[in-house]
Design goal:
By secondary structure, this protein is mainly alpha-helical. It has 14 helices and no strands.
């Protein structure tokens, strides 16, 4: 029997709706008329960080990635869906700018990311110190929403950069995509991790289990990546990922070793401990510095990208650690497979 590699499988099914807005977007994807898409007034009443709006954005953005099963490729540029997406993005971005208005300068913001607290309280700290196998599986499920895309959203910024920033961004991406070797692609390593934990590594498989906090963190990447005017914010966002990745990866690798998950599960994070320690230097000295050397006026956007990424990470951390500390599932709906 031929085994199909996890990353080459068919597109995922369209996730179930979580409110009127996501219902209308979902219906359009599955063949409904453009006239049934949600109005500006209806979207304005949506919670910007809530389940309905974040799923609706996820549905719109997925058309620019692998797409959904049964949804024609032509809908990627459907005028009605693009108009709806713009309204959803405006609601989301406006909330982020309001909540991230008080920001330090770029150097201060980057310096803060380099500080490791003596007693951390984040997800990786929790899983390293007391995480149980079912919590590690839930974490893998939720991270799969973004990790099976790896650096895809950030690559949209490459045509919008110049010189040092562009060269360094591509150099980092080369590592993320396995340095030209399929078996070393980080998305593939993450699929191996999921398989080792007894999870289905199919792309998009667990979107229905991911709550608004997970979707918002994922949607932020697409929001920044798809808009040239937000290239500075994307660079700030990318700096957060690379600067904070290596220490967190070390803790998560330790958590997996403690649980006896095995080498296939540990390899993904072990790879990031070393690689992202180098990437952290490159992103600060070449990507961020290179961008601001060319376009110093984008400094406020870089700090916005940093602040927005940290804000959504804090919301996700609160959701996960809060639920796990109570002995509850952090998934949107309980799952025997992921539990």
């Amino acid at each position: 029997m031929t085994v199909v590699p996890p990353l080459a499988r068919a597109a995922p099914p369209v996730p179930e709706a979580r409110g009127d807005v996501s219902y209308a977007v979902r219906k359009r994807l599955l063949g409904g008329g453009a006239g049934e898409l949600p109005s500006e007034a209806r979207i304005a009443r949506c919670s910007p960080y809530g389940e309905d709006l974040q799923l609706a954005l996820h549905l719109c953005y997925e058309q620019h990635y692998q797409g959904f099963e049964g949804v024609p490729d032509t809908l990627e540029w459907d005028a009605g869906l693009l108009g709806t997406r713009a309204l959803l993005e405006h609601r989301f971005e406006s909330a982020l700018r309001h909540d991230c208005h008080d920001r330090p300068d770029v150097d201060e913001a980057l310096a803060a990311l380099l500080v490791e607290p003596a007693e951390g309280t984040g997800v990786s700290y929790f899983l390293m110190s007391e995480g149980e196998p079912w919590q590690l599986r839930e974490h893998a499920v939720l991270r799969s929403v973004t990790q099976l895309r790896e650096t895809d959203p950030q690559l949209w910024v490459v045509p919008r950069l110049r010189g040092r920033a562009k060269a360094a961004m591509v150099a980092i991406a080369y590592d993320e995509y396995g340095s030209g070797r399929t078996e070393r692609m980080h998305a593939g390593l993450y699929a191996d991790l999921m398989t080792a934990l007894g999870l289905d590594p199919s792309y998009g498989r667990y979107a229905d289990l991911a709550g608004a906090e997970t979707l918002a963190a994922s949607n932020l990447m697409s929001l920044f990546g798809l808009h040239r005017r937000l290239r500075g914010a994307l660079v700030g966002h990318f700096a957060v990922l690379e600067i904070t990745s290596s220490p967190a990866a070390s803790r998560l690798a330790a958590a997996l070793r403690r649980s006896g998950a095995g080498p296939a599960a540990e390899r993904y994070y072990d790879e990031h401990v070393e690689a992202d320690a180098v990437h952290e230097q490159v992103v600060r000295r070449e990507v961020v510095s290179g961008l601001l050397e060319d376009e110093p006026e984008l400094a406020p956007e870089v700090t916005f990208g940093i602040a927005a990424t940290c804000l959504l990470d804090e919301r996700l951390t609160s959701r996960l650690v809060g639920a796990w500390s109570r002995g509850e599932s952090a998934l949107r709906t309980p799952s025997e497979e992921a539990g």
